[in-house]
Structure formats: C-alpha cells, structure tokens
Amino acid sequence: MDWTPKKPPSAKEIASRFRNEIAVGKYGPGQKLPGAKDLAKHLKVALMTVQSAYKELAEDGLVQGRQGSGTYVLDPKKGDPTAQDAAASMRDLQNRLMHVTSELSELRERVERLEAEHPRAVENQ
C-alpha cells in the first residue's frame, strides 16, 4: 500500500485508483485488494468510503467481495475480457467523458458570450 494522498480521497477517487492499478496489472486476476479496514485507516477515511469504492469496482465487474475473506480481482471465464481489459475500457471511457465535458463547457461559454454580444438576435428567436 504505497498510496498516501495529500487529502482524504473520495470513494470515486479510490475506485479510480484501483481501476487504474488493475488496468496496468498491479493487481491481476485472483489477487486480493488491501483489506478495507486497513486501507481506510491508511487513507484516513471512513470504512464506508472504502466499502463504497469496492462496491463500485464490483458493479464494474472488476472485483468480487468474499464474506470474511476480502475483495479479489475477478478471474474471467474463458473468452470473457479480463479485469485489466475492463478497467482499461473504463479508464478510456472516463477520459472520453472528461473530454466531452470540457468541450461542452467551452461551447456553453461561447454561446453565453455570443448572447451577451448580440442580445437582440436572441430576443428575436
């Protein structure tokens, strides 16, 4: 556990970090993620925050919690994508979404600027 963030991370940030680590192979199929209690203590967050992050990873199909044992990276069935493939796809999707969000923000600013510069054109519509 070599992760020491400057501020306590959110569940989404924790999940994103593990998603990336799974994508690059730091955690392979069948490997156990750090225990939720120890990780929460290390990151100085509530146990529920780590549990929420692990739940998000499980919903993505990357890990599976085993009662009393821990959380493990899924070992895919033959022909199914690996957890690394799924995590890499999720990471790519996140990057694309960030790009689209940025483009939309820029477009909104341009429209607002045009509306401010040409208020009569907007009134006539």
TrEMBL record:
Residues 90-124 form a coiled coil. Residues 8-76 form the HTH gntR-type domain. The keyword Transcription applies. Transmembrane segments: none annotated. Gene3D superfamilies: Winged helix-like DNA-binding domain superfamily/Winged helix DNA-binding domain. It holds the Pfam family GntR. The keyword DNA-binding applies. Residues 66-87 are annotated as: Disordered. Keywords: Coiled coil, DNA-binding, Pyridoxal phosphate, Transcription, Transcription regulation. This is Winged helix-turn-helix domain-containing protein. It comes from Streptomyces cavernicola. The lineage of its organism: Bacteria, Bacillati, Actinomycetota, Actinomycetes, Kitasatosporales.
